[in-house]
């Protein structure tokens, strides 16, 4: 004979299995099937003691931050070194010349991002939203 779910519950929890966990007057709370019970004693943090309140020295090394201003300054120096003065007195360089230069390749890890940051700072200008090698080789980058 196959036992029903009611029989298995009675066998596991006793005669009145519904009152095993909850008082008869209160309905059982609805629990999300995948979230842990927030009232579980296993999820509450331990009470702080005086030993745990003192913070040990941190061994975590923060990630290096990029100094955008110094990168832009270096970029201006390299454009001045590689570029030519135009009739208006502004220095400009072709994008391909800047990208293919070995010294620029060693200095700048992400030269496209540095160019965009310099344009946002109104240090230089170029046509288009961004520059891609091969497609935008003949685009002039002009210092303001």
UniProtKB/TrEMBL annotation:
Gene3D superfamilies: Costar domain (1.10.10.1540). Residues 66-144 form the Costars domain. Residues 49-65 have a biased composition (Low complexity). One of its GO terms (biological process) is regulation of actin filament-based process. SMART domains: Costars. Residues 1-68 are annotated as: Disordered. Residues 24-48 have a biased composition (Pro residues). It comes from the Eukaryota. InterPro entries: Costars, Costars_dom, Costars_sf. PANTHER family: COSTARS FAMILY PROTEIN ABRACL. Belongs to the costars family. This is Costars domain-containing protein. It comes from Chondrus crispus (Carrageen Irish moss).
């Amino acid at each position: 004979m196959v036992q029903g779910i009611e029989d298995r519950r009675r066998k596991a929890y006793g005669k009145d299995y519904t009152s095993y966990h909850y008082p008869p007057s209160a309905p059982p709370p609805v629990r999300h099937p995948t979230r842990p019970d927030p009232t579980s004693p296993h999820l509450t943090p331990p009470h702080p003691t005086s030993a745990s309140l003192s913070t040990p020295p941190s061994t975590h090394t923060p990630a290096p931050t990029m100094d955008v201003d110094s990168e832009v300054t270096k970029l201006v120096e390299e454009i001045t070194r590689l570029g030519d003065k135009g009739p208006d007195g502004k220095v400009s360089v072709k994008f391909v010349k800047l990208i293919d230069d070995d010294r620029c390749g060693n200095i700048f890890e992400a030269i496209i991002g540095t160019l965009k940051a310099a344009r946002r700072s109104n240090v230089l200008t170029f046509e288009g939203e961004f520059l891609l090698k091969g497609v935008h080789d003949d685009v002039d980058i002009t210092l303001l």
